[in-house]
Amino acid sequence: MQRFTISLDDQLAAQFDDWIAQRGYGNRSEAVRDLFRAELDRSQQQTGSATHCVACLSYVFNHHERDLAERLTSLQHAHHDLTVSTMHAHLDHDHCLETVLLKGEIAAVKAFADAVCAERGVHHGKVNLIAVEMDAHHHHAGPAGHRYTRRHAAGGSAGHVHVKPVT
Fold this sequence. Notes:
By secondary structure, the protein is α+β, with helices and mostly antiparallel strands. It has 3 domains: 10-47; 52-130, Alpha-Beta Plaits (2-Layer Sandwich), CATH 3.30.70; 134-165, no CATH class. The chain contains 5 helices and 5 strands, in the order ααβαββαβαβ. It has helices at 10-23, 28-47, 68-78, 106-117, 150-153, and strands at 52-62, 83-90, 95-105, 122-140, 157-165. A 5-stranded antiparallel beta sheet has the order 2-3-1-4-5. The protein is globular, with a radius of gyration of 21 Å.
């Protein structure tokens, strides 16, 4: 781990310390590390050096809107390669909150999120993307918890992708 020193004027240091306290950080170093990570992630997404992401898309919608639930489900099925999981919660008699976990190419995830949020009756849509590195691995079947299939029994390997946040 490397150390470096920065100088802040008293007012900025006080504002930073207030922000740290509001967020519940234990110290300035953790807060600075998180700020750096967020800015580096944003920069990688803007420059195109990051190509894949995991994301959380959340939105509120009026479930009485004509065919909206069916349109949203159809969008998710049409992009099953991006959609990892969906959580649905009822907020009141008219509104639902859905959270969709996504994984894939940044451009495809953004396009999917934009399409969902643009649906008539969807409100307050937001997507949070985290750049990741994709790494394909092959594992042999074993007691470590990997799914066992006939292919494994025949000595094959299970191919899957490891997703690791860009640090």
